[in-house]
Amino acid sequence: MTMTEDTNSRFLKACRGEPVDATPVWFMRQAGRYMKAYRDLKEKHTFLEMCKTPELATQVTMQPVNALNIDAAIIFADILLPLEPMGTGLEFSAGDGPVVPRPVKDAKAVEKLRPVNAEEQLGFVGDAIRMVRKEINGKVPLIGFAGAPFTLSSYMVEGGKSKDFTATKMMMFEAPEIWKQLMDKVCATLIDYLRMQVNAGAQALQIFDSWVGCVSPFDYEHYVLPYTKRVIDGVKDTGVPIINFSTGTSTMLNLVAKAGGDVISFDWRIHLDDAWKQVGFDQPIQGNLDPSILMAPLPVIKERVHDILKRAAGRPGHIFNLGHGIFQHTPVDHVKAVCDMVHEYRHE
Ligand code: CP3
């Protein structure tokens, strides 16, 4: 496929708010453990090995592209990869999720964080992007991504996953100047990392603020928004569309939209049309099926998929997706069926 056909893809058109022949669809975490091909590869390699070996990352990125009728690919990587070059360490121990061995708890730890040169230290992600672009041959566009400053920092401060994010919030509340220094360093790394991905061939970028729904609108506005905005502003001139994704934020989508992004992506805790109205119908959006619905019987899936599409009402600028990543025990057939339901739907 030529360059022009690529930029005329449904996905990139919808990112720009242009009309499309059918609603584009892709799934967060569309590569992963729910697929047998992924589990087979995982028998032979660790997760980090797969991320750091461009041939393997390419293979995994292509698995859903080949198995499903999706309208975009997302590079196989992880939001936590920048933590290693920053100096906190990173481990994925089976079952416990990610572990950060040297968490950032105080001013000294923030000072010790190293500046990252993404081209040199995370170059394997760029190599994987170049390799996927070749292999995908214009079939669908490729999305690059990074964590948002809040979500990434929460792993750094907490040392792993968290329920209450108390340590992260206490840094904001008790030591706002340390929080600011941490955010300054994280933002610099994220901007460099995202720009490197676009230089390598990423055709859109998604910023994952998976856990920011734990903060109040007050704290979002004071301690989160300025930094998410800095990252988005810092990659704007690359010209690729930026998707600003978060969960648990349906009561403050107006603030989320203020941080910027060409597309606002939200979860299932709000009707799609209510969310769209909040951010404005001229703002492209992405969402918002509850990922657990993919495990329900097909008629239930169809009812919910159609409800979302009915609420989108044929307006231009809707990308169909989940409100968060696919669960491990999701039947691949159901994911396939959703692609067809979305593509076949016509608004009356
Ligand atoms: O979407 C895709 O297909 C691209 C790949 C992708 C992964 N992680 C692969 C992965 C993307 C976009 C991510 C983003 C990511 N990573 C986020 C933001 C999205 C979200 O789900 O909220 C977050 C918070 C992380 C951090 C992270 N990495 C977690 C919480 C876990 C799960 C740990 C576990 O054991 O469940 C990971 C590991 C991870 N990242 C896996 C995959 C496929 C599973 C690794 C395995 O096979 O064991």
Protein architecture, described:
- This protein is of the alpha/beta class and 348 residues long.
- It has one domain: TIM Barrel (Alpha-Beta Barrel), CATH 3.20.20.
- Helices cover 50% and strands 11% of the residues.
- The chain has 17 helices and 9 strands.
- The strands form 2 sheets. The chain has a 7-stranded parallel β-sheet with strand order 1-4-5-6-7-8-9. A two-stranded antiparallel sheet has the order 2-3.
- The longest helix has 25 residues, at 176-200.
- The radius of gyration is 19 Å and the shape is globular.
- The mean pLDDT is 97.
- Coproporphyrinogen III (CP3) binds next to strand 3.
Question: Can I get a quick summary?
Answer:
Helices cover 50% and strands 11% of the residues. By secondary structure, it is an alpha/beta fold. It has one domain: TIM Barrel (Alpha-Beta Barrel).
